[in-house]
Amino acid sequence: MNPYFSFQWHITDECDQRCKHCYIFSGEGCQKLHSMTWEQMRAVVDNCEDFCKVYYRTPYFYITGGDPVLHPDFWKLMVFLKTRNIPFTLMGNPFHLDDEICRMLKACGCEKYQMSLDGMRKTHDWFRKPGSFDLTLEKVGCLNRAGIKSVIMSTVSKTNMEEIPDVIDAVVQAKVRVFAFSRYVPTGGEVDASMTPQEYRELLTVCDAKFKAYEAAGCETFFNRKDHLWTLYQYENGEFQLPAGAKDGMIYGGCNCGNCHITIASNGDIMACRRVTDSRVANIWEDRLADVWLCQMEQYRDYEKFKKCSKCELRAWCRGCPAVANGTIGDFYGADPQCWKTKNDITGEDLL
């Protein structure tokens, strides 16, 4: 059993970027920015610890925003987590990092720091902020020197998909410790998300070849094949096989929504997934997490409802990305728009 239960925790909406694909600054709710008070943040930690004890697990926080460093009580929270021996990753921007700040973060127990590269210089700076491409790669060195795992995440859309192979080269050259990419969830902004299944599969093919070449050369970067469609890709290539002892009805992998992950928004709302914008199920200061997990979250783990994945032999390990399906067609259980599989290879049943 996984010893951790993970929480993506947004402590503030404040940010010194306005990224074109950001879910915080899109839609009707983007006018008011929230930040938790110190008392509210302490309550979040207490509530999550109490909940995890029920399942004999430890909370693991992915602390983000906005940019979490901008919260006025950021360092107070860092020290508090250190006293509780709670592990965490930070997901933020490069602008406020330097060698001293990174050493302080390491002393507080920060294990990883995740930043973004969404294309090469011109494209990334268009998505996010002029100058942020070069600054992001520069700050990788600060994190590495402090002993914090530097993580780069790319958000892939049709706008930048052709640049992802070059991004891989850039992160390897910068000695990034972990690299991964996920797909853009449509929010009605300026980003073109309309990759075809065939285009996305070709991108995985190109990236897989680069990953393997770098791995064979002893590259320091770990390539996290994060998108669950990697499971389908590796299944077709014979690198993933269905375990002989797998039990019907069990879920072994794929999306963690409803399995071991919850999002806590800056206003205290509990969400099944931050990328599923309409997935609010409760509020951390008003509702008991154990009750929410057993009751309201049940609607996100009804695996028979998946219109395509429920008929697929990979259902227990893949299921694509429900957030992308929800953002594209408004249906959490709808077909992943970039999934290219059309038939159950065991039963011969059509999936579409």
Automatic annotation (TrEMBL):
Keywords: 4Fe-4S, Iron, Iron-sulfur, Metal-binding, S-adenosyl-L-methionine. Its cofactor is [4Fe-4S] cluster. The keyword Iron-sulfur applies. GO terms for molecular function: 4 iron, 4 sulfur cluster binding; catalytic activity; metal ion binding. PROSITE patterns: RADICAL_SAM (PS51918). Residues 1-213 form the Radical SAM core domain. NCBIfam families: rSAM_ACGX, rSAM_more_4Fe4S. PANTHER family: PQQA PEPTIDE CYCLASE, RADICAL SAM DOMAIN PROTEIN. This is Radical SAM/SPASM domain protein, ACGX system.
